[in-house]
Specification:
The protein has 214 residues and is an alpha/beta fold. Helices cover 28% and strands 28% of the residues. The protein has a single domain, classed as Rossmann fold, CATH 3.40.50. The strands form 2 sheets. The protein has a 7-stranded mixed beta sheet. Strands 1-2 form a two-stranded antiparallel ribbon. The N and C termini lie far apart (43 Å). Bound molecules: S-adenosyl-L-homocysteine. S-adenosyl-L-homocysteine binds next to β2, α4 and β4.
């Protein structure tokens, strides 16, 4: 099992060695077959320390950034989580191993279909998908214990803050098109609080509460 060995190495060198300590996150990374979330030609690179193209000018994030964002969400078995930007489906699959239900939205039809099929094939039955502009969230299913945005936004969409439960956490890259800050936002009775987790680089969040198409 070539990929099982590569996956174990990825978890040791990229995830644990860099300070990810949440046992649920580590176990999810040990389980999810990342090579199945990229095209066949890229499978041998799937466990490398970098993002990879997934078509439509989009990318599957570097493993460490997926782990960092997942840990920052502080979610557990009872949590319901919303993801904006399904992409390959890898981040949603990682979350589905940890939480009770994942709601994920993708605006590019071909990526949406591909991820949907993969979730079925791999029996990720607790992932609900939607083909839509996710920058306004998924109001009917709100509030969420966690919201994770895997595309860079010009600012934090107010609609997403509204859909976060009191006590909930959001992780979102905010900045211009070239570089962003990874922001963790908490909501409690007193209001919202933000922590800067450092620099990052994501593709654009395109939509009503994101960037324009062009
Ligand atoms: N979480 C993904 C990363 C995908 S890259 C993974 O694990 O592979 C970001 C994705 O966000 C792209 O697929 C892009 O099409 C999508 N996206 C950008 N703006 C969006 C929007 N407003 N609503 C939904 N998806 C969006």
């Amino acid at each position: 099992m070539k990929y099982a060995r590569q996956r174990a190495e990825m978890v040791g060198r990229q995830i644990e060695a860099r300070g990810i300590t949440d046992v649920n996150v580590i176990q999810a990374f040990q389980k999810v077959p990342r090579h199945l979330f990229v095209n066949e030609a890229l499978m041998d690179q799937a466990y490398g320390d970098f993002p990879l193209p997934i078509g439509e000018k989009q990318t599957i994030s570097q493993p460490y950034i997926v782990a960092e964002m997942t840990q920052a969400l502080e979610v557990s078995k009872e949590s319901r989580v919303l993801e904006i930007g399904t992409g390959s489906g890898y981040q949603a699959a990682i979350l589905s191993e940890i939480v009770s239900r994942v709601y994920t939205i993708e605006r590019i039809h071909s990526l949406f279909i591909k991820a949907r099929k993969l979730f079925d094939k791999l029996h990720y039955h607790n992932i609900l998908t939607k083909y839509s502009d996710g920058s306004s969230g998924w109001k009917d299913e709100s509030p969420f214990d966690g919201i994770i945005v895997t595309a860079g936004a010009p600012e934090i969409p107010e609609s997403l803050i509204d859909q976060l439960s009191t006590g909930g956490r959001m992780v979102i890259p905010v900045g211009d098109q070239y570089s962003q800050k990874l922001i963790k936002l908490y909501k409690d009775e007193k209001g919202i609080h933000k922590v800067d987790l450092g620099g990052c680089r994501f593709v654009k969040l395109v939509g009503t509460h994101g960037w324009n198409e062009i």
